[in-house]
Amino acid sequence: MSSPQVLIAIPVKPFGVAKQRLAPVLNPKQRRRLGKAVAAHVITTALDTGCAVGVVTDNEGVAEWARRLGASTIAEPLEGGLNGAATGAVEAARRMGLGWMILHADLPTLTPADLSEALAATPEGGVLLAPSHNGGTSLITAELESFPFTYGQASFRRHFAAVAPLTHRVLVRPGLAIDLDGPEDLATAVGLPAGRWLEPLLPVLIGGSVGVFRSDPTAPLA
Questions:
Q1: What is the DSSP-derived secondary structure letter of residue 182?
Q2: Phi, psi at residue 103, to the nearest 5°?
Q3: What CATH topology corresponds to 3-208?
Q4: Most buried of the four, 72, 90, 195, 221, by CB within 10 Å?
């Protein structure tokens, strides 16, 4: 698929309720700031592709923030969670006459090259999937009019089974595989060149060792 013919849809939760699994190392304010920064990184990286970019949300504060970054917004259905958000994005793409990409907002080492490769590798009339390291699905892109989204734990296995009758490809890249779920993911991301931008946002590293964070979640976030 060529970039201008694709809507990149990025579901974004309200920042105050995200990233609960980082609670052992980050307090609520820190988690909110980090989640917002990573989502902004994903959105601006998507915008660099030249594609239309839409943030899927039912939160007006998130919508206003996304528009300031240069993205459009897609109304998230009241029910259905992430599956409903993805389905709503596909419907929006269909109304626009575009193919679609559902991209997770918690990919701290995502690069423009990751998305360019995904767009270039998507088979005509088929589907491309990218797995996260923990068995999730960080990216799905296609020109299909509908798709049976089944996000949740180990979603990649279910999505892969769903595309088996179709022409499909799987793309494995670090920028798509590392999603920000727990403290170990944060440590992995900041240890990679593409994740070095995170360093000013992190608590102090103990002894300079990446992966061992100060365990006090009340410590200031620089």
A1: S
A2: -125, 130
A3: Spore Coat Polysaccharide Biosynthesis Protein SpsA; Chain A (3.90.550)
A4: 195
**Residue-range domain boundaries for the chain:** 3-208
Q: What is the DSSP secondary structure assignment for residue 142, as one 8-state letter?
A: E
Q: What is the pTM of this model?
A: 0.89
> What gap in Å lies between CA 117 and CA 147, rounded to an integer?
21
Q: Determine the Cα–Cα distance for residues 35 and 146; give it in Å rounded to an integer.
A: 29
Which tokens go with 117? 């490769």
pLDDT in 10s for each residue of the chain, 222 residues? 656 699 999 999 998 665 667 777 778 888 888 899 999 999 999 999 999 999 999 999 999 999 999 999 999 997 889 999 999 999 999 999 999 999 999 999 999 999 999 999 999 999 999 999 999 999 999 999 999 999 999 999 999 999 999 999 999 999 999 998 888 898 899 999 999 999 888 754 323 344 444 434 334 443
- Contact status, residue 168 vs residue 122, Cβ threshold 8 Å: no
Distance, CA of 43 to CA of 66 (rounded, Å):
8
* Three-state secondary structure of 42-100: HHHHHHCCCCEEEEEECCHHHHHHHHHHCCEEEECCCCCHHHHHHHHHHHHHHHHCCEE
3-class DSSP state of 165: coil
How many residues are recorded in the chain?
222
Residue 129 in contact with residue 167, Cβ under 8 Å? no
Residue whose pair of structure tokens reads 């980082």 in the numeric block: 22
